[in-house]
Specification:
This protein is of the alpha+beta class. The chain has 3 domains: 116 residues, no CATH class; 58 residues, no CATH class; 85 residues, 3-Layer(aba) Sandwich (Rossmann fold), CATH 3.40.50. Helices cover 49% and strands 17% of the residues. The protein has a 3-stranded mixed β-sheet with strand order 3-4-5, sandwiched between helices. Strands 1-2 form a two-stranded antiparallel ribbon. Helix 9 links the parallel strand 3 and strand 4.
Length: 281
Protein backbone atom coordinates (compact mmCIF):
# COMPACT_ATOMS: atom_id res chain seq x y z
CA UNK A 1 0.00 0.00 0.00
CA UNK A 2 2.82 2.37 0.83
CA UNK A 3 4.52 1.85 -2.55
CA UNK A 4 1.21 2.51 -4.32
CA UNK A 5 0.77 5.76 -2.43
CA UNK A 6 4.32 6.87 -3.17
CA UNK A 7 3.64 6.45 -6.89
CA UNK A 8 0.26 8.20 -6.83
CA UNK A 9 0.71 11.89 -6.11
CA UNK A 10 -3.02 12.59 -6.26
CA UNK A 11 -3.78 10.02 -3.56
CA UNK A 12 -1.05 11.45 -1.32
CA UNK A 13 -2.28 15.02 -1.82
CA UNK A 14 -5.88 13.99 -1.11
CA UNK A 15 -4.71 12.27 2.06
CA UNK A 16 -2.87 15.40 3.18
CA UNK A 17 -6.01 17.47 2.65
CA UNK A 18 -8.09 15.04 4.71
CA UNK A 19 -5.52 14.82 7.50
CA UNK A 20 -5.19 18.60 7.60
CA UNK A 21 -8.96 19.11 7.68
CA UNK A 22 -9.21 16.85 10.73
CA UNK A 23 -6.42 18.71 12.54
CA UNK A 24 -8.07 22.03 11.64
CA UNK A 25 -11.33 20.78 13.13
CA UNK A 26 -13.33 21.12 9.92
CA UNK A 27 -16.65 19.35 9.80
CA UNK A 28 -16.65 18.98 6.02
CA UNK A 29 -16.13 20.65 2.64
CA UNK A 30 -18.80 22.95 1.20
CA UNK A 31 -17.69 24.75 -2.01
CA UNK A 32 -19.86 27.86 -1.63
CA UNK A 33 -18.96 28.30 2.03
CA UNK A 34 -15.22 27.95 1.38
CA UNK A 35 -15.34 30.39 -1.51
CA UNK A 36 -17.31 32.97 0.46
CA UNK A 37 -14.96 32.70 3.44
CA UNK A 38 -11.95 33.34 1.22
CA UNK A 39 -13.53 36.29 -0.58
CA UNK A 40 -14.92 38.00 2.53
CA UNK A 41 -11.91 37.61 4.85
CA UNK A 42 -8.93 35.76 3.44
CA UNK A 43 -6.82 36.26 6.58
CA UNK A 44 -9.45 34.45 8.61
CA UNK A 45 -9.78 31.81 5.89
CA UNK A 46 -6.05 31.08 6.19
CA UNK A 47 -6.47 30.44 9.90
CA UNK A 48 -9.58 28.36 9.33
CA UNK A 49 -8.31 26.11 6.53
CA UNK A 50 -4.52 26.22 6.67
CA UNK A 51 -2.01 26.35 3.84
CA UNK A 52 -2.34 22.74 2.66
CA UNK A 53 -6.11 22.77 2.24
CA UNK A 54 -6.14 26.14 0.48
CA UNK A 55 -3.43 25.08 -1.96
CA UNK A 56 -4.94 21.70 -2.82
CA UNK A 57 -8.56 22.85 -3.04
CA UNK A 58 -7.91 26.05 -5.02
CA UNK A 59 -4.80 25.03 -7.03
CA UNK A 60 -3.20 28.34 -5.97
CA UNK A 61 -0.70 29.37 -3.32
CA UNK A 62 -1.93 31.67 -0.57
CA UNK A 63 0.22 34.60 -1.70
CA UNK A 64 -1.10 34.36 -5.25
CA UNK A 65 -4.70 34.35 -4.03
CA UNK A 66 -4.13 37.43 -1.87
CA UNK A 67 -2.64 39.37 -4.79
CA UNK A 68 -5.46 38.55 -7.19
CA UNK A 69 -8.52 38.22 -4.97
CA UNK A 70 -10.00 41.55 -6.09
CA UNK A 71 -9.92 40.62 -9.78
CA UNK A 72 -13.39 39.40 -10.92
CA UNK A 73 -11.97 36.95 -13.47
CA UNK A 74 -9.74 35.41 -10.81
CA UNK A 75 -12.67 35.04 -8.42
CA UNK A 76 -14.55 33.12 -11.09
CA UNK A 77 -11.58 30.79 -11.65
CA UNK A 78 -11.11 30.36 -7.91
CA UNK A 79 -14.72 29.29 -7.44
CA UNK A 80 -14.55 26.85 -10.34
CA UNK A 81 -11.38 25.25 -8.96
CA UNK A 82 -12.90 24.82 -5.51
CA UNK A 83 -16.03 23.23 -6.94
CA UNK A 84 -14.05 20.91 -9.22
CA UNK A 85 -11.61 19.70 -6.56
CA UNK A 86 -14.29 19.08 -3.95
CA UNK A 87 -16.36 17.23 -6.56
CA UNK A 88 -13.31 15.02 -7.21
CA UNK A 89 -13.01 14.21 -3.50
CA UNK A 90 -16.63 13.07 -3.64
CA UNK A 91 -16.02 11.00 -6.77
CA UNK A 92 -13.07 9.32 -5.05
CA UNK A 93 -15.30 8.37 -2.13
CA UNK A 94 -13.53 10.62 0.38
CA UNK A 95 -16.55 12.88 0.91
CA UNK A 96 -20.22 11.97 1.02
CA UNK A 97 -22.95 13.96 -0.73
CA UNK A 98 -23.04 16.53 2.08
CA UNK A 99 -19.28 17.01 1.93
CA UNK A 100 -18.57 15.10 5.16
CA UNK A 101 -15.54 12.83 5.52
CA UNK A 102 -16.17 9.15 4.83
CA UNK A 103 -14.57 6.12 6.49
CA UNK A 104 -12.38 5.76 3.42
CA UNK A 105 -11.12 9.30 4.01
CA UNK A 106 -10.31 8.57 7.65
CA UNK A 107 -8.35 5.45 6.68
CA UNK A 108 -6.42 7.40 4.06
CA UNK A 109 -5.57 10.09 6.62
CA UNK A 110 -4.23 7.37 8.93
CA UNK A 111 -1.98 5.98 6.21
CA UNK A 112 -0.69 9.43 5.33
CA UNK A 113 0.28 10.13 8.93
CA UNK A 114 1.96 6.73 9.18
CA UNK A 115 3.93 6.80 5.93
CA UNK A 116 5.01 10.44 6.15
CA UNK A 117 6.08 10.75 9.74
CA UNK A 118 7.10 7.40 11.17
CA UNK A 119 10.53 7.41 9.54
CA UNK A 120 11.22 10.97 10.71
CA UNK A 121 10.24 10.71 14.34
CA UNK A 122 12.10 8.69 16.97
CA UNK A 123 11.28 8.42 20.61
CA UNK A 124 14.03 8.71 23.18
CA UNK A 125 14.01 8.40 26.93
CA UNK A 126 11.22 5.85 27.14
CA UNK A 127 13.21 4.03 29.79
CA UNK A 128 13.04 0.42 30.75
CA UNK A 129 12.23 -1.58 33.85
CA UNK A 130 14.54 -4.31 35.04
CA UNK A 131 13.33 -7.26 37.03
CA UNK A 132 15.73 -8.08 39.84
CA UNK A 133 15.21 -11.79 39.35
CA UNK A 134 18.14 -13.47 37.68
CA UNK A 135 17.40 -14.98 34.30
CA UNK A 136 19.48 -17.11 31.96
CA UNK A 137 17.82 -15.49 29.00
CA UNK A 138 17.95 -11.83 29.98
CA UNK A 139 20.47 -9.13 29.08
CA UNK A 140 24.04 -9.15 30.41
CA UNK A 141 24.05 -6.63 33.24
CA UNK A 142 26.70 -7.63 35.81
CA UNK A 143 29.23 -10.27 36.79
CA UNK A 144 29.20 -13.02 39.40
CA UNK A 145 31.68 -15.77 40.35
CA UNK A 146 31.62 -18.92 38.26
CA UNK A 147 29.86 -21.89 39.82
CA UNK A 148 29.48 -25.45 38.65
CA UNK A 149 26.58 -25.84 36.26
CA UNK A 150 26.81 -22.34 34.76
CA UNK A 151 26.47 -22.23 30.97
CA UNK A 152 29.84 -21.82 29.27
CA UNK A 153 28.40 -19.24 26.85
CA UNK A 154 27.85 -16.99 29.88
CA UNK A 155 31.55 -16.94 30.77
CA UNK A 156 32.91 -13.38 30.92
CA UNK A 157 36.36 -14.16 29.52
CA UNK A 158 37.76 -10.63 29.41
CA UNK A 159 36.63 -9.92 32.94
CA UNK A 160 38.07 -13.25 34.09
CA UNK A 161 41.44 -12.54 32.44
CA UNK A 162 41.63 -9.09 34.04
CA UNK A 163 40.83 -10.64 37.41
CA UNK A 164 43.62 -13.20 36.98
CA UNK A 165 46.09 -10.48 35.96
CA UNK A 166 45.25 -8.37 39.01
CA UNK A 167 45.89 -11.40 41.19
CA UNK A 168 49.24 -12.11 39.50
CA UNK A 169 48.13 -15.46 38.08
CA UNK A 170 49.83 -16.72 34.92
CA UNK A 171 46.89 -18.98 34.10
CA UNK A 172 43.19 -18.82 34.77
CA UNK A 173 42.07 -20.64 37.87
CA UNK A 174 38.48 -21.56 38.73
CA UNK A 175 38.56 -18.78 41.34
CA UNK A 176 39.35 -16.20 38.63
CA UNK A 177 36.41 -17.14 36.45
CA UNK A 178 33.34 -14.94 36.39
CA UNK A 179 30.11 -15.16 34.42
CA UNK A 180 27.53 -12.69 33.27
CA UNK A 181 24.56 -12.16 35.52
CA UNK A 182 21.53 -11.74 33.33
CA UNK A 183 18.39 -9.80 34.09
CA UNK A 184 15.15 -9.79 32.19
CA UNK A 185 13.54 -6.59 31.02
CA UNK A 186 10.15 -5.91 32.54
CA UNK A 187 7.16 -4.75 30.53
CA UNK A 188 6.28 -1.07 30.16
CA UNK A 189 2.84 0.46 29.70
CA UNK A 190 2.68 3.99 28.29
CA UNK A 191 -0.34 6.24 27.93
CA UNK A 192 -0.06 9.20 25.58
CA UNK A 193 -2.30 12.07 26.70
CA UNK A 194 -3.11 14.49 23.89
CA UNK A 195 -4.67 17.90 24.45
CA UNK A 196 -7.32 18.43 21.76
CA UNK A 197 -8.57 21.80 22.96
CA UNK A 198 -9.21 24.65 20.56
CA UNK A 199 -5.76 26.14 21.13
CA UNK A 200 -4.22 23.02 19.55
CA UNK A 201 -6.01 23.47 16.22
CA UNK A 202 -3.86 23.14 13.10
CA UNK A 203 -0.11 22.49 13.13
CA UNK A 204 0.10 21.98 16.90
CA UNK A 205 -2.41 19.16 16.78
CA UNK A 206 -0.83 17.62 13.66
CA UNK A 207 2.58 17.59 15.36
CA UNK A 208 1.12 16.06 18.52
CA UNK A 209 -0.50 13.29 16.46
CA UNK A 210 2.79 12.49 14.74
CA UNK A 211 4.60 12.32 18.07
CA UNK A 212 1.92 9.96 19.38
CA UNK A 213 2.31 7.69 16.36
CA UNK A 214 6.08 7.51 16.84
CA UNK A 215 5.71 6.82 20.56
CA UNK A 216 3.16 4.06 20.01
CA UNK A 217 5.20 2.42 17.26
CA UNK A 218 8.40 2.47 19.31
CA UNK A 219 6.70 1.07 22.40
CA UNK A 220 4.97 -1.76 20.55
CA UNK A 221 8.09 -2.53 18.52
CA UNK A 222 9.91 -3.10 21.83
CA UNK A 223 7.17 -5.52 23.00
CA UNK A 224 5.62 -2.96 25.33
CA UNK A 225 2.12 -1.47 25.32
CA UNK A 226 0.82 1.99 24.48
CA UNK A 227 -2.49 3.65 25.28
CA UNK A 228 -4.15 6.94 24.42
CA UNK A 229 -6.21 9.64 26.08
CA UNK A 230 -7.61 12.54 24.08
CA UNK A 231 -8.94 15.32 26.28
CA UNK A 232 -10.23 18.88 26.18
CA UNK A 233 -12.91 19.93 28.65
CA UNK A 234 -13.87 16.24 28.74
CA UNK A 235 -12.34 12.88 27.82
CA UNK A 236 -12.93 12.58 24.08
CA UNK A 237 -11.20 9.22 23.49
CA UNK A 238 -9.50 6.65 25.69
CA UNK A 239 -7.63 3.51 24.69
CA UNK A 240 -6.18 1.22 27.35
CA UNK A 241 -2.53 0.16 26.83
CA UNK A 242 -2.45 -2.26 23.91
CA UNK A 243 -0.16 -3.80 21.30
CA UNK A 244 -2.64 -3.01 18.50
CA UNK A 245 -0.76 -0.29 16.64
CA UNK A 246 -3.33 0.10 13.85
CA UNK A 247 -6.07 0.78 16.40
CA UNK A 248 -3.99 3.55 17.97
CA UNK A 249 -3.09 4.94 14.54
CA UNK A 250 -6.76 5.13 13.56
CA UNK A 251 -7.75 6.87 16.79
CA UNK A 252 -4.89 9.38 16.55
CA UNK A 253 -5.63 10.29 12.94
CA UNK A 254 -9.28 11.12 13.73
CA UNK A 255 -8.62 13.58 16.57
CA UNK A 256 -10.17 17.02 16.10
CA UNK A 257 -9.53 20.17 18.12
CA UNK A 258 -12.35 20.91 20.55
CA UNK A 259 -12.90 23.22 23.52
CA UNK A 260 -11.07 24.01 26.78
CA UNK A 261 -8.48 21.89 28.57
CA UNK A 262 -8.97 19.85 31.76
CA UNK A 263 -5.57 18.30 32.55
CA UNK A 264 -6.64 16.88 35.91
CA UNK A 265 -9.40 14.91 34.22
CA UNK A 266 -6.89 13.42 31.78
CA UNK A 267 -4.51 12.36 34.57
CA UNK A 268 -7.33 10.71 36.51
CA UNK A 269 -8.42 8.77 33.43
CA UNK A 270 -4.84 7.67 32.76
CA UNK A 271 -4.61 6.14 36.23
CA UNK A 272 -7.80 4.20 35.53
CA UNK A 273 -6.47 2.83 32.23
CA UNK A 274 -3.10 1.62 33.49
CA UNK A 275 -3.01 -2.14 34.18
CA UNK A 276 -3.04 -3.28 37.80
CA UNK A 277 0.05 -5.45 37.26
CA UNK A 278 3.55 -4.43 38.33
CA UNK A 279 4.52 -3.07 34.92
CA UNK A 280 6.42 0.19 34.67
CA UNK A 281 4.02 3.07 33.96
Amino acid sequence: MRSVMENDKDVVNDGKVIAESISQGLGGFTPDLMFNNMVKDFQRAKQLYGETIIREVTDFDQDYIEKNLNIPEFKSTLKQNIERNIAKLKEDGLLDREGQLTQKALKLASLILYTEELDKLTVKGMGEREERRRSRYGDKKDYKPYTSGTRYKDLALRHSVRTAARRGHNTLTPQDLSVYERRRKGKISIIYALDASGSMRGKKLATAKKAGIALAFKAIEQKNKAGLIVFSSDIETSVAPTTDFMHLLTELSQIRANRETDLQLALSKALELFPKSAETK
